[in-house]
Write a structure and sequence with these properties.
The chain has helices spanning 28-53, 131-135, 194-203, 241-247; strands at residues 4-10, 13-17, 57-60, 64-70, 79-90, 98-108, 116-118, 121-127, 143-147, 151-157, 161-163, 167-176, 206-215, 219-228, 250-254, 257-261. It is of the alpha+beta class and 262 residues long. The protein folds into two domains: 4-52, no CATH class; 55-261. Strands 3, 4, 5, 8, 9, 10, 12 and 15 form an eight-stranded antiparallel β-sheet that branches. A hairpin with a 3-residue loop joins strand 9 and strand 10. The longest helix has 26 residues, at 28-53. It starts with a strand and ends with a strand. The mean pLDDT is 84.
Length: 262
């Protein structure tokens, strides 16, 4: 027992006086050393985790997808191109960047084998009343397409895109919706030209697009955009896309449902 005997009240009863202990105090230098040790251990563990895990990339779903008619009027030789923003965020530290090795647009249409198209070009869309004048200043390494006098898209050759650690990447990429650009043999046989592609798209009241990114280190990421073609909100859906694209040459459609996979 911690104390000192000071007397007896009976044969088996002893009075004890407790000792007064001095309170334990930590000097400032001890506290600082402990905090430094904790910080060092945390930093080492975080560095080890990132070294094992590598890049941590998230695909941010697009707000919209735009479509435009390419290669002249809506007749023989015209094709339909889709453009989408590739918003990717790498939450790893600056030492762990990643590279996109493949980008594919998959379209959910009736049937067992959904068509998928390869990324073919980097795009810069310009929505302006001076589109015709700006097209006259098209860079020598690019190709400029103007529709309706108010929509200009600058097409540049495709290139490999990277996603630096601790940063984001946002570029518009284009997919030519044609059999020749198909990523799955036999799945795009119905995508012959502008007219056939537009007819396929406008038959569906709702279309789901999946943008699949294959990253060198962090595997596949998928961003999903579902578009409701009944933009007028009518009780009965009335197809309109073919007539609109034939007359104006372009359209931008909002994503009504946006999801992504990690």
């Amino acid at each position: 027992m911690d104390g000192t005997a000071i007397g007896r009240a009976g044969p088996n009863i002893v009075f004890w006086k407790r000792r007064n202990h001095r309170p334990i105090t930590l000097r400032p230098e001890v506290l600082i050393a402990g905090a430094a040790l904790l910080l060092s251990v945390t930093t080492v563990l975080a560095g080890a985790w990132f070294a094992i895990r590598g890049s941590v990339v998230t695909a941010v779903p697009p707000d919209s997808i735009f479509f435009y008619r390419d290669a002249g009027e809506a007749g023989a030789g015209a094709v339909l191109t889709a453009g989408v923003d590739t918003a990717l965020v790498n939450s790893a530290s600056g030492n762990y960047g990643d590279v996109i090795t493949r980008i594919v647009m998959e379209i959910d249409l009736p049937g067992d084998n959904d068509p998928a198209f390869k990324y073919t070009a980097l795009l810069t869309p310009v929505f302006s009343e001076t589109a015709e004048r700006q097209a006259g200043e098209c860079p020598v390494t690019a190709r400029c397409v103007v529709n309706d006098g108010q929509f200009l898209v600058i097409e540049e050759p495709r290139r490999t895109l990277d996603v630096p650690g601790g940063a984001s990447r946002s570029d518009y990429v284009g997919f030519v919706l044609q059999k020749e650009s198909c990523d799955r043999p036999g799945a795009c046989d119905r995508f012959l030209d502008f007219q056939s592609v537009v007819a396929l798209l406008e038959r569906a009241q709702t279309i789901t697009f999946r943008i699949r990114y294959q990253l060198h280190d962090d595997g596949e990421k998928v961003a999903v955009c579902r578009i409701d073609m009944n933009t007028a909100g009518r009780e009965a859906y009335e197809p309109w896309l073919a007539a609109h694209l034939t007359n104006k040459g372009w359209v931008q459609l909002p994503c009504n449902l946006r999801t992504s996979t990690l």
